[in-house]
Design brief:
The chain has helices at about 15-20, 40-65, 65-70, 140-145, 145-165, 165-225, 235-265, 265-285, 290-315, 335-370, 380-420, 425-460, 465-480, 480-515, 525-560, 575-585, and strands spanning about 100-110, 115-120, 130, 135-140, 320, 325-330. By secondary structure, it is mainly α. The strands form 2 sheets. It has a 4-stranded mixed sheet with strand order 2-1-4-3. A hairpin with a 4-residue loop joins strand 3 and strand 4 (about 135-140). Helix 8 packs across helix 14 and helix 14 packs antiparallel against helix 15 (about 525-560).
Length: about 600
Amino acid sequence: MGCCCSSSSRVGSVKQNARSFPDSSDGFEGPVRNRECTDSFFLFIFAVYIIFLLVGVGLAFVNGDPRRLLFGYDDYGNMCGFKNKPINGANRSGVDYKKERYLVINEKCVKEDCRMEKICQDKCPDGYENTTFHRCLPTKVKQTTSKLLQSTLPFLEEMGSDISLCWKEIILLCLISIGLSVLLLIVLRFCASIIIWAVLIIVTIGSLAITVYIWYMWHEKKKRLEEYDGPNKDLKERRVMYWLIAAVLSTIFTVIYILVIIFMRNKIKLVAALFEEAGKAVAAMPLILLQPVETFISLVAASCFLLFGFVCLQTSGKPLVDREGRVTFPIESFFQVMRWLSLFGFVWVTQFILACQNLVVAGAVSTWYFTRDKDRLGSPIWRSFSNLICYHLGSAAFGSLIIATMKLIRALFRLLQKYLDQGNQNQRCEMCWKIFHCCLACFENYLKFLSKNAYIMIVIYGQSFCASARRSFGSLTSNIGKVMVVDCIGDFVFFVGKMGVTIAVVFIALEVLKDMEGLHYIWGPVAITGVFAFLSCHCFLSVYEMTIDTLLLCFCEDCNMNDGVTRPYFMSRSLMALIEGSRKSARLRPVSKRKVVD
């Protein structure tokens, strides 16, 4: 979620912010038109990195052969199932193995020296069994090492049979899940306030019920303990004490939760109003819901290319012939480094694609918010996409690089933990590592949160990533209470919506598939449709969530720049009513002829 309106303590800094961001002062009429390229240096680094990956993958594809990984090769570098070219120094290379498609792997021992021997044959010999990708392993080895695989293959075959049997029903259920996701957006558009208060009331009732139940159980346990005079009385006393501790903690949580709801009721009204405004924005720009589809296609394309590149890098070794004429394919140092760079590139590219989606959605929504005549909106999505391509790809590269670097740091610390914990089972060290990883995860989530708000400032004012992040950071820190309310309530409502759609689709799937003949496992297709329902709802709500974040920051900037009299607000009447209500309840006077929002 984003930040909230500026409080009275920030009113005096409005002029200073206006000097730092001249477009936010008088005469502001929405996202700036005259823009400059932002963070071009990081776009250059990103382009160089991608070119370097392309060159590395190209060299790996030329020097290596991914078919070696799929079909296997014998001890002399000959691939099974192909006519091979001779290798210099390997006298037994260059064999035509078109008919010999099976790679036989056996352990050959000469005195005390044992090694794995690989031979290509036309079929698996006696005592061997065929496994995945035409590999032949000894039956004893397979029985001892692949019991899990043997039990899994029939299960996979039955699952495949179930999917092929009810694929029409699965497609229908997936379409139903998309329809329910759209219906959820419509419900949030018109009934956001009712849903939010209903969720909060249900949680309150649930907390009270759980607290009463725990106190009741403690009272019953204590009463039985007073009447008990048998063995293990100390153990029962400890259990009663645990119930008492749980009852006290539950009571504290319930009291704090109810007090927060009471004192934050005005801010909860802001959450409901923002949900309704987000529904209006999505209804005015329905094509914005296609952004997750475009993002998904881009992620799949990038993932396929990087996976193919990793396979090429894994098989990029040049043939190395030993004294006995056997051939190995060791990976050179350059390609070993490229493997790690490709893994980092996967994280960076995926984060870059997600950042582009956030910039497009934020740009379109901010244009909608700052357009007074909504009937002359034009093409805000196309305008936002054009601004991204022409000016802000560098900012997307910079923001995604920060997140990717943080993920790399977390991965390196996990590797360091495994290296230091070898043979050492110290529980205190294990606890310290868990706390440290938890802190890193929280910091990464904060960076994502700050980057998302920086993207919103970028599309409004056209500033660089650091300048926009600094401005959003000031808003976040000065409105931390409001941010927490909007963020927590919004995320909880979205989670309830996702689970509601998923559970509904699961029950529909159970009803549709319960009488289907020939179905081995009904929960297989049900699980597939449930996962698809959750992901589809998450995609739609991710756009809705970014819309709310953008509207919240636009609302804050609107309050800072305008007073509603000499400079009219851009906001709708429902948001204006919140401002007037807040002023009346707090009995605040205007400062420097500006509206002040609690």
